[in-house]
Write a structure and sequence with these properties.
Elements lengths: L2 H22 L4 E7 L17 H8 L2 E7 L5 H10 L13 H7 L10 H7 L3 E6 L28 E3 L8 H5 L18 E2 L9 H17 L5 E7 L6 E2 L2 H4 L48 H31 L6 E7 L4 E2 L5 E2 L5 H4 L3 E4 L7 E8 L3 H8 L14 H5 L10 E5 L2 E5 L3 E6 L7 E5 L15 H12 L10
Parallel strand pairs: 1-6, 1-8, 2-12, 3-4, 3-6, 5-7
Antiparallel strand pairs: 2-11, 8-11, 9-10, 13-14, 14-15, 15-16
Helix pairs in contact: 2-9, 7-9
Length: about 500
C-alpha cells in the first residue's frame, strides 16, 4: 500500500472514530444556578467595589454576556420566559403568576413544555433546589398559607427540594430574618436589611447550598445525566446577609447612582413608586419619586445589596468547587443567570418593574464542558435564547416553537456576523427593544409621551428620552420594535 493511501486510510479511520465518539459520549450534565434580582453588579462586569471572587473566577473560564436582557422585569414572568423560551402574548404572562396560570393550571396538552421537562423526557434526572420557578420551593401556596401540595412545574422534576429551616415554610424563609422571623409574620414591621453575626446557614441560602452539595454527591453516583437547578434568594429584598459579608466593604467607598433623577421627557407612568421596597416599613426613610433618599441611606442600602451578592458568591463558589472535586465539571454545562436587574436608587427607584436598562439587564454566564477559556460577549441577547441553547448543547429538540435563538453560534464564534442583536421586554403596558446602540419603548396608554428613545452611545444611563428630537430615527427603529410586538397589550 502506498504512503498516500495509508495517510488517506488513517484520516478516514480518525473521522469514523470521532463520529463514533460523539455518538457514544455521555450527554452533558447541566448545573443551572439562578440568582434572584442580580443585575450585572460583579467584579467581572467591571464593578471595582463588589467582592465576588468566585463568580469572577467562573467568568474567567466561561462565556460572559455583558448585554443580556430578561423578557419581563418581575420574578415569575421572567422565569416563565426562561423556562418556556417564549415572549409574553397575554397579560397573564407578564405577571408573577405566569407559571401558575399558564403551566400548572393548564391541561398537559395545552401548556408549553419547560426545558427542564424536555430534558427529563430525554433521559435526564432532574432536581430542583430552591427558587427555580416563581414559588420559592416549587409548591403553590400564598405567603401566609400552610405549605402547598401542588407543584408549580408538574412535569419537570424528579425531585424538588428545599430546606426551610427555622422559618418553617418557603415563603417565610424567602422573607426571613436571622432570628427565624419573617416580613409577613411581622406585618411588614421590618427593615429592608440585616447584618446578623451568624454563619452562612443562619440565612436560607446557606441551607440551599448544603442541600446542593449533598445532592451533587448523590448525582455523581447515578448512571444517568442530570439537570440540577439551584435557586438562590439573595440579593432579593430584604438585603440580609451574615455580618462577615457586610464587613468586606467600606461604605464610604460605595458610589451613588449615575441617574439620581427621573429621566428627562418621561412620564412617571413609565416608572414605579417603590411599592415592594416600602413594604419594609421600618426602613430608615421611605422611597418616593418626589425626591431621592439621602446619600447616607442610599449607601447603606447599596451596602446591603453588595453584602448579599458577596454572600451568594460564597455559596456559588462552594457549589462549583464541589462539582470540580467530584470530577463532574468535565461533562457539565454550567449556567449562572440573574432573573432581572434592579434599580439601586437609579431614577429614584429601589426595585425592578420598569422597562429601563437597570431593571432589564442581568447577569448571565455559561460554561461548556472542557472549556476553560473565558470569552466576553457584547452582543445583545435575551433570556429566551437560553432554552434553544440548552436544546442544542444537550442534543434534544423543543416540542413547541421558541422565540429565542441558540447561542451556540456565538459560543463557537464570538465574531459571528449573523446574530440578530436585539432583545425585547414587556411591562407596564409597554414593549421595549434593545439594539446594540438604542432602546426604543412604546407604551399602550393615555399618558404622554408614549414613545421613549435612549441612545446608549451618548447616554448609557438612559437619563434623557430623545424620541421627540429624533423622529426619523424613531421611524427607522419602529419596524425592529414591531418584530417583538406579540399583541400582549392589545386593547390598551
Amino acid at each position: 500500500m502506498r504512503y498516500a493511501d495509508l495517510i488517506f486510510l488513517y484520516l478516514f479511520l480518525l473521522q469514523i472514530t470521532e463520529v463514533w465518539s460523539q455518538q457514544t459520549a455521555s450527554p452533558p450534565n447541566v448545573l443551572f444556578i439562578s440568582i434572584d434580582d442580580l443585575r450585572p453588579e460583579l467584579g467581572c462586569y467591571g464593578n471595582p467595589i463588589v467582592q465576588s471572587p468566585n463568580l469572577d473566577k467562573f467568568a474567567s473560564q466561561a462565556h460572559l454576556f455583558t448585554n443580556h436582557f430578561v423578557t419581563v422585569p418581575t420574578c415569575g414572568a421572567s422565569r416563565y420566559g426562561l423556562l418556556t423560551g417564549l415572549y409574553p402574548r397575554t397579560e397573564t404572562a407578564v405577571s408573577n403568576d405566569a407559571i401558575r396560570k399558564l403551566i400548572a393550571e393548564q391541561p398537559k396538552e395545552d401548556r408549553p413544555e419547560t426545558f427542564v421537562a424536555n430534558l427529563r423526557r430525554n433521559v435526564y434526572y432532574t432536581v430542583g433546589i430552591g427558587k427555580i420557578s416563581h414559588y420559592v420551593d416549587g409548591l403553590l401556596y400564598g405567603y401566609t398559607d400552610p405549605v402547598g401540595t401542588e407543584w408549580e412545574l408538574p412535569d419537570s422534576w424528579d425531585e424538588m427540594l428545599f430546606d426551610a429551616g427555622k422559618w418553617g415554610t418557603g415563603w417565610n424563609a424567602f422573607f426571613g430574618y436571622a432570628d427565624g422571623s419573617n416580613r409577613q409574620g411581622k406585618n411588614k414591621q421590618v427593615k429592608p436589611y440585616e447584618a446578623a453575626d451568624v454563619p452562612d446557614t443562619g440565612y436560607p441560602d446557606g441551607l440551599t447550598t448544603e442541600l446542593a452539595l449533598k445532592k451533587l454527591q448523590e448525582l455523581s453516583d447515578k448512571d444517568q445525566p442530570f439537570f440540577l437547578g439551584v435557586g438562590f434568594f439573595k440579593p432579593h429584598l430584604p438585603f440580609n446577609a451574615p455580618k462577615k459579608y457586610w464587613d468586606l466593604y467600606d461604605r464610604a467607598e460605595i458610589p451613588l447612582t449615575n441617574s439620581p433623577d427621573i429621566p428627562a421627557n418621561v412620564h412617571p407612568a413609565s416608572l414605579q413608586n417603590n411599592g415592594e421596597f416600602n413594604n419594609y416599613q421600618l426602613g430608615d426613610e421611605p422611597a418616593t419619586l418626589e425626591q431621592p433618599v439621602s446619600d447616607e441611606y442610599a449607601r447603606k442600602l447599596k451596602h446591603g445589596y453588595y453584602a448579599s451578592i458577596s454572600y451568594i458568591d460564597a455559596q456559588v463558589g462552594r457549589v462549583l468547587d464541589e462539582l470540580a472535586r467530584l470530577g463532574l465539571e468535565k461533562n457539565t454545562i454550567i449556567i449562572v443567570w440573574g432573573d432581572h436587574g434592579w434599580h439601586l436608587g437609579d431614577d429614584r427607584i429601589w426595585g425592578k418593574h420598569t422597562n429601563f436598562e437597570y431593571a432589564l439587564r442581568s447577569a448571565f454566564m455559561i460554561k461548556t464542558p472542557n472549556n476553560n477559556q473565558g470569552k466576553q460577549h457584547n452582543e445583545i441577547v435575551s433570556t429566551v435564547d437560553i432554552y434553544p441553547t440548552l436544546m442544542e448543547l444537550c442534543n434534544t429538540e423543543a416540542s413547541h416553537s421558541l422565540d429565542g435563538n441558540s447561542l451556540v453560534s456565538l459560543l463557537n464564534n464570538p465574531n459571528s456576523a449573523n446574530w440578530r442583536n436585539t432583545a425585547y421586554s414587556y411591562f407596564r403596558q409597554g414593549i421595549t427593544v434593545r439594539t446594540d446602540r438604542y432602546r426604543l419603548t412604546k407604551y399602550f396608554r393615555e399618558e404622554q409621551p408614549t414613545l421613549e428613545l435612549y441612545d446608549h452611545q451618548a447616554d448609557p444611563y438612559e437619563n434623557e428620552n430623545v424620541a421627540a428630537q429624533s423622529p426619523d430615527l424613531v421611524e427607522s427603529l419602529l419596524p425592529i420594535w414591531e418584530e417583538g410586538n406579540t399583541g400582549v397589550f392589545e386593547g390598551h
